[in-house]
């Protein structure tokens, strides 16, 4: 999946599961403060995203670092790259 496809899938999950209006979804929005989600919403969201992306998020410490919607986008881009064996831009720089 491309980054754009991942962003679209994440946004679709927010809209379908949490009924967040599409116009409120932008990378800089804080999940709890700006979008008004609580911890139970986050569980529902992560469950929906696991299903959508077909990956398990158990024992993933990176989840605790998520603050904004952009962090979720970046997290799933990274997960998709790891799953597909692609290198992230950061990994490509390190290899140079």
Question: What is the CATH C-level name?
Answer: Mainly Alpha
Oligomer: single chain
Low-confidence stretches: none
- Structure summary, number of beta strands: 0
**What name goes with the CATH superfamily?**
ACP-like
Residue share in β-strands: under 5%
How would you spell out the order of helices and strands? HHHH
Gross morphology is: globular
What is the first-to-last residue Cα distance? 25 Å
Q: Helicity range of the residues?
A: 55-70%
User: What do we call the CATH topology?
Assistant: Non-ribosomal Peptide Synthetase Peptidyl Carrier Protein, Chain A
| Content-based structural category | mainly alpha
What's the arrangement of secondary structure elements?
Elements (H helix, E strand, L loop, with lengths): L2 H16 L20 H15 L15 H16 L4 H7 L1
Structure description:
The protein is globular. The protein has one domain (3-89): Non-ribosomal Peptide Synthetase Peptidyl Carrier Protein, Chain A. The relative contact order is 0.15. It contains four helices and no strands. The two termini are 25 Å apart. The chain has helices at residues 3-18, 39-53, 69-84, 89-95. The model has no long low-confidence stretch (mean pLDDT 87). The protein has 96 residues and is mainly alpha-helical. Helices cover 56% and strands 0% of the residues.
């Amino acid at each position: 999946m491309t980054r754009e496809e991942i962003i679209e899938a994440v946004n679709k999950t927010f809209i379908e599961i949490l009924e967040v209006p599409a116009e409120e979804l932008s990378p800089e929005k804080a999940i709890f403060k700006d979008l008004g989600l609580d911890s139970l919403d986050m569980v529902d969201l992560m469950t929906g995203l696991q299903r959508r992306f077909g990956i398990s998020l158990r024992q993933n410490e990176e989840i605790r670092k998520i603050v904004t919607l952009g962090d979720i986008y970046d997290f799933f881009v990274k997960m998709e790259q790891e799953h597909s064996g692609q290198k992230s831009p950061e990994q490509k720089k390190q290899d140079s």
